[in-house]
């Protein structure tokens, strides 16, 4: 079956380590997406699984078989690439069956497989067409069909939707999920698009600079990112980061403080430099945060730019600091260029906020992430712990 295991896989080129000590354990039937910025080693990892590249170190097994140095044809895999190279002089049927004909499959078996693939991909009526009579999305489906007819144990897909327009890409995401459900076959998928990774995968493997950062279900990467890189990469727009220092019972930043109970979160050590992470949806205008059980103290801010998205509005905030006269101190302009005293907040589309308005916001303390500024690693994702169950110290909950 289609289990894939990478153990300590490293791939070096002359002066680049494209993939560094990669360990992956992919179960049969799983949809795993390798995601990360351009150049992080996704394609190289996939190529080592495909047999297009031999790793410098490490082993790769597919279904228990050590394939590390085997050529692609001796691996039970089929690949789909970004560039769809269909033979222009062959119709869809012949394009899809080309590989099978090379392998001397009999024509009955070929027809059975092409028919099944065409049915799954809903392109039955296209099998007699030539490639230049197909749209981009249809061509991509034929390319996927060509992989399906191989009936491999593992599908390897390298940015297969990258050349499609935005609307079709979103549509094809759903198609690929449906396809995965139908085929029940392992899919290892490469993309730089975190939204694509989040929506389709059982697990995502986030990579940066050749290193695996975290492998987990999409929502775990979103809610409990292992480090600052994952926290910033997953989610759009990204998480807000504010640097601060751990004090006895609060994390102090330039613009605001976040109280915590040291008994509940012993991993927050006084004097440590930490970075607070909070997602835009966990920042609230103070007046609208009544339903929030655990808000921070009010944070004084000025609205800078508003971006209405239709279903929500992104509000760029410049913090005004704790200074009582702050209303006319740190206003936008110069302060906004520094970054550290900015926050992005998302609000409901019917919000009546305007730009250049002095407001107060609060953060949902249950949704505050803390990272070690030095290593970037997550320290904790819940600074309240059991406090919300009835414990906690007086003053930890602020009135709004
Ligand atoms: P991604 O797919 O995440 O964009 P790649 O796996 O293609 O990244 O590349 C990872 C790194 O390895 C990059 O720095 C890239 O330039 C380098 N690299 C990839 N293939 C080769 C090659 N054949 N020769 C030299 N360097 C390569």
Automatic annotation (TrEMBL):
GO cellular component: ATP-binding cassette (ABC) transporter complex, substrate-binding subunit-containing
Enzyme class at the top of the EC tree: translocase
Keyword Ligase attributed: no
Domain ABC transporter, residue spans: 4-234
An example molecular function term from Gene Ontology annotations: ABC-type transporter activity
EC id: 7.5.2.13
Protein name as catalogued: ABC-type D-xylose/L-arabinose transporter
Protein source organism: Halosimplex pelagicum
